[in-house]
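Q: How would the structure tokens look for this protein?
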Amino acid sequence: MVVIWLVSTIVVLFVRMSLKDGGIGADWVRQYWQDIYPADRVVLSGGKMAPIPRRYDRILKEEIDPYLYDYIKDQRVLRARDAGDSSPERLAAKEEVAKARYAKRGEL
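A: Here is the predicted structure in token form.
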């Protein structure tokens, strides 16, 4: 009788997540949520505006104000619906531009 023992070791060399309480920026969003949510944007270095990270939304929903979170999500849906980029004419123009771009690259 032959007994074979298989031993496997998994070594994690690098983890890209924070293991602290709430993750990277959690303390910051807890302190400054009233400044970022009215504009629905965060300001990056150099003054560039970016959408609020989903992690910050999760902190708002779970720890700060779930009703405000629902309101903000509804407002984002309405803003996307009213953006004007989804009319049939605009969608046809976008399709034409995309086809031209792919044809220029030889991918179509």
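The chain has a mean pLDDT of 84.

The CA atoms of residues 25 and 31 lie 10 Å apart.

Upvote if useful.
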